[in-house]
Design brief:
Elements (H helix, E strand, L loop, with lengths): L3 E5 L6 H10 L3 E5 L8 H9 L2 E5 L5 H14 L3 E4 L4 H17 L2
Length: 105
């Protein structure tokens, strides 16, 4: 499918697992920890590169969530706020989005 996926926030110990899930669906994977204290440029750059953005709301900064929402709306990009940082929930939402992409082609 060759889509690119960005996860912002989530559990650091699960980043490699998120990556494995994305790659299992043939997606390129990006991750940002959600810390915006160093500025928003890196976060914006990753949002600009990704086809879809997932933002974990239980392990993330409110600033990162607000920036993502604003940037994605401005660019017309799909974004999802994940209520859980769990792997199965991420996989489910990603799979559903990818299926919609097939239908809308």
């Amino acid at each position: 499918m060759n889509k690119s996926v960005l996860i912002v926030g989530g559990l650091d110990r699960l980043v490699n697992h998120y990556k494995e899930i994305a790659r299992a669906f043939k997606c390129q994977f990006y991750h940002h920890c959600g810390d915006c204290n160093g500025g928003k440029k890196k976060l914006y750059r990753l949002v600009d590169q990704a086809d879809v953005i997932f933002c974990s709301i239980n392990i993330n900064s409110h600033t990162a969530c607000a920036l993502i929402k604003k940037r994605c709306k401005k660019q017309g990009k799909p974004f999802f706020f994940l209520k859980s940082s769990g792997l199965s929930y991420f996989k489910k939402v990603l799979e559903e989005w990818l299926e919609k992409q097939k239908v809308n082609k």
